[in-house]
Amino acid sequence: MSNHTKPVPEVRRLLAVCAHPYDATFALGGVIAAFADAGTAVHIVCLTHGRRTDAVPRRRLDRARDLGRASRHIGAEDVTLLDHAPGTLMTASIDELAAEILDAGRDADALLAIDATGPDAHPDHVRTMRATYRAATRLGSTLYAWTLRAPQPTRGQQVLVVDADRERQRAAIACHTGLPADDPLRSRWLNHQQREERLIVLRTERVLSPVATRADL
Ligand SMILES: [Zn+2]
Q1: Pick the CATH number of 13-216 from 3.40.50.10320, 1.25.40.80, 3.80.10.10, 3.30.420.10
Q2: Burial class (CB in 10 A: 0-12, 13-18, 19+), 197
Q3: In sequence order, which ranges of 74-164 are alpha helices (DSSP H)?
Q4: What is the chain's pLDDT, residue by residue, as a tens digit (217 residues)?
Q5: Sheet with 13-18: strands ordered across
Q6: CA–CA distance from 110 to each of 53, 174, 176 (Å)?
């Protein structure tokens, strides 16, 4: 039973798609935990093995292990960690990325990505969002985008406000052994501690035309 006052939408199987391993916890962790708490089966697919190229290849294994542990804390059932190099997604084909995303979760009735419609979005995040949009279109599934941006009602976007599970998110973040205590990611996340998160509905399964126009993506 969920005790959230602003519950997540009812989803049977959710595929959470991120560009970098830390995105799954720092950005999406509170929302993933809230879905898992509501009974949704969550599968995470992460397209690259890090934020930057590793000088020591072994660190990739450490990060895969850390992400596996973190995922259990936020209640995800499974993680697929793909091996694209960080910073290279802009050169990867959208169709190929979408096919890899679909391979990870063909039975998902909803997908979750990080909103990359803002002007300062990381190029890997932009590519990931576009590929996830294509995967959602192929599946005919709903696509939610987690966002920190202020609501933009003039764009006609449907926005859901949901309660995040910060306790589980914190436990998941503690699993990232390779992240220094003073890393800016930590301080950025610590500034974002309110209970609620916002999800933009980028695509719904119930309409024939997508909620977002192609220009938005
Ligand atoms: Zn990222």
Answers
A1: 3.40.50.10320
A2: buried
A3: 94-104, 123-139
A4: 445 578 999 999 999 999 999 999 999 999 999 999 999 999 999 999 877 776 677 888 888 899 999 999 999 999 999 989 888 999 999 999 999 999 998 899 999 999 998 888 999 999 999 999 999 999 999 999 999 887 776 667 789 999 999 999 999 999 988 887 788 887 777 777 788 999 999 998 754 555 555 555 5
A5: 78-84, 41-48, 13-18, 110-114, 142-147, 196-203, 158-163
A6: 31, 28, 27
Q: Does the pTM of the predicted model rise above 0.85?
A: yes
Distance 179 CA to ligand 1 centre (A): 14
Distance 37 CA to ligand 1 centre (A): 24
CA distance 171 to 60: 21
Residue reference for tokens 């220094």: 180
Q: Ligand 1 centroid to 180 CA: how many Å?
A: 16
Q: In angstroms, what is the span from residue 121 Cα to ligand 1's centroid?
A: 9
